[in-house]
Design brief:
By secondary structure, the protein is mainly alpha-helical. The chain has 5 helices and 2 strands; from the N terminus they run H-H-H-H-H-E-E.
């Protein structure tokens, strides 16, 4: 059996390179939440999570074969796919959660109308091999793949 653990650490310095990646990621999520809230009716009809994610990405990411309906790529040019996809997942989760809470509120099962919050404290997930690699054995460090725009 493989044991996996995760740790949360608070980053105190304001001038470290991670700050730029966080700022861009959070702005991307803030841009995407209203987009997916606006298109939620069509997205919610897609039951398969992977297909829903693919459709959500097609709404905002331009390719040779896909003309995006929203100008995400113009606001966030050359954003790496791993970071863009993490932002899309986070935004979809936020809108899905809001819609669920709104439905419960309308049924009277929740007190206080829920709010869709676009300003967030989202943190990208650093997947091994894609966004980070471990340092040498015995070294207490990791090498992060960051993006500063």
């Amino acid at each position: 059996m493989q044991i996996v653990s995760s740790y949360g650490v608070e980053i105190k310095k304001k001038n470290i390179p991670l700050r730029a990646t966080l700022d861009i990621f959070r702005k991307a999520v803030s841009y995407l939440i209203p987009v997916y809230a606006e298109t939620w009716e069509e997205l919610s009809e897609i039951r398969n999570a992977q297909k829903r994610f693919n459709e959500a990405e097609h709404l905002v990411h331009e390719t040779k074969k896909n003309h995006a309906r929203f100008l995400f790529d113009r606001h966030f040019p050359k954003m790496p796919s791993y970071l863009r996809r993490a932002a899309i997942q986070h935004a979809l989760g936020a809108v899905s959660s809001y819609q669920t809470r709104l439905s419960l509120w309308e049924k009277g099962e929740l007190r206080g109308k829920p709010k869709l919050v676009c300003e967030n404290h989202a943190m990208p997930v650093f997947y091994r091999d894609v966004m980070y690699k471990e340092a040498e054995p015995g070294e207490d460090a990791a090498h992060l793949k960051l993006f500063d725009g």
